[in-house]
Amino acid sequence: MVILDGGLATHLEALGADLRDELWSARLLLENPSLIRRAHLDYFAAGAEVATTASYQASIPAFVRRGLGADEAEKLIVLSVRLAVEARDLHGTGTVAASVGPYGAYLADGSEYTGDYDLDEDGLADWHRERWHILAGSGADLLACETIPSYAEARALGRLLAETPGTRAWVSFSCRDGEHINDGTPIKDAAALFAGNPQVIAVGVNCTAPRHVPSLIDRIEGKPVMAYPNSGETWDAVNRRWLGLADPDEFGAAAAGWSAAGAAFVGGCCRTTPEHIRQIREHLRTG
User: Fold this and answer.
1) Which domains does the chain have, with CATH numbers?
2) Is the separation of the CB atoms in 103 and 153 below 8 Å?
3) Any known ligand binding at 145?
């Protein structure tokens, strides 16, 4: 069993960061990179064995749109990996996974939760390619293709894997229910894209309601399964606030259940914290 980290942006906000920005946590690569390193260290201290980098929204086009040059943007993407590596080395052990967020994260229009894109598979491969190759050569242990809402985007990422044959990755989908990723494709079909790919170490789900996870685990075949859902809270877009309260102890107990159901990697996504990860560790230890 591998314990992943939790919500990086969530913890950065708890540490005082203002992330009300299209760049989200990647904003701190410009403004306060040391806080990112501290957040990684806090997750390692809580029991996480993997640090997922602050590159989810750190694309070349996003930084260029902010007014930076392409060379500056590339350095910031590499910095996201270096900060996680530094935290790992300070902690003494762990894995660094370079986050590859979906095209919709760059659009910042909610399409990362629907897969309703204005690009086809070829266009998505072209959009991801430059960052992909930067991260593949960054020194990260693997690439974390995460919150993927679209079958076409998954196919595009598979093509990029083939361009970097020495690169390992995991692929994690965002899902609308217990059977389908967010564009409506059955999770079984989406996962099957990578079942025979030796570069892919695991396939799973993230940024998905915890109640859907057991059903989704049952439908993934051919690879070790990962599950790192959000906290179970819901976002009130009108009033711009989170509703509900996810108890870390309950989340830890649920994660132990996902492990028993077959998940080989467990952790958290949006609105989860180091305490959620600590509780996962405790429940796995005592379960």
Assistant:
1) 2-286 (3.20.20.330)
2) yes
3) no
